[in-house]
Amino acid sequence: MSAWRDISTDPPPTNRALQIYVPGDDYYRNNGTYHAMLVDMGTGRRWMTFGFAIGRDLPADHQPTHWQYVPEPPEGSP
């Protein structure tokens, strides 16, 4: 189910954990990939991450270019 999708061609689901790619943001040696959510709390849709700015909106100059569903855990995981 995991496959990178261009951010402009396939709208990501809202309020669901996803994996995103933000070019140029190589914090924590993650090559720009983060777990995030596209949230809508009545003030419009915006990105929040679990690694770049934990629990905060991504700044306008650090927006993702691609997204994918979070990969399934390894087979046999509890």
Mean pLDDT over the full residue set: 80
Between the first and last Cα atoms, what is the distance in angstroms? 19 Å
What ranges have pLDDT less than 50 throughout 5 or more consecutive residues?
none
C-alpha geometry: globular
User: How many independent structural domains?
Assistant: 1
Instruction: Find the count of extended strands (DSSP E, 2+ residues).
Output: 5
Major β-sheet annotation: 5 strands, antiparallel
Could you estimate the helical fraction of the residues in percent? under 10%
Give a written overview of the molecule.
There is one protein chain. The chain is mainly β and 78 residues long. The chain has one domain (5-69). The chain has strands at 5-6, 18-21, 33-40, 45-49, 66-69. The chain has a 5-stranded antiparallel β-sheet, with no helix packed on it. β3 and β4 form a beta hairpin. The chain is globular and about 40 Å long. The two termini are 19 Å apart.
What would you say about this model in short?
The protein is mostly beta strands. The chain is built from no helices and five strands. It has one domain.
Outline the secondary-structure elements.
Blueprint: E1 5-6, E2 18-21, E3 33-40, E4 45-49, E5 66-69
Antiparallel strand pairs: 1-5, 2-3, 2-5, 3-4
List descriptors:
mainly beta, five-stranded antiparallel beta sheet, 5 strands, globular, 78 residues, 29% strand
